[in-house]
Write a structure and sequence with these properties.
alpha+beta, Lipocalin, five-stranded antiparallel sheet
């Protein structure tokens, strides 16, 4: 599946806080709350902490990296119980 939308930066000091619209005129907050130094993964969340996505450039993240991300998310107050891993088929 593909989702297309438009994004605009709302915090030019960090470029980590965006508003995204998949259906105009409605915009939602999408904050980059964790990012690998090499951009291997990005973690995007909502300021309410009701929404959270762990996005990876690869089909899977190694378990150590995933566990480290979860530790940082928990320290930032994000609930981990509702997280679901989505299987990514190869090819």
């Amino acid at each position: 599946d593909v989702a297309e939308g438009r994004a605009r930066v709302v915090d030019t000091d960090t470029n980590a806080k965006l508003e995204v619209s998949f259906f105009r005129p409605f915009w939602g907050d999408y904050w980059i709350i964790d990012l690998a130094p090499d951009y291997e993964y990005a973690v995007v969340g909502h300021p309410s902490r009701d929404y959270l996505w762990i996005l990876s450039r690869t089909l899977t993240l190694d378990e150590q990296t995933y566990a480290e991300i979860l530790t940082r998310l928990e320290a930032k107050g994000y609930p981990l119980a509702p997280l679901n891993k989505t299987e990514q088929p190869a090819g």
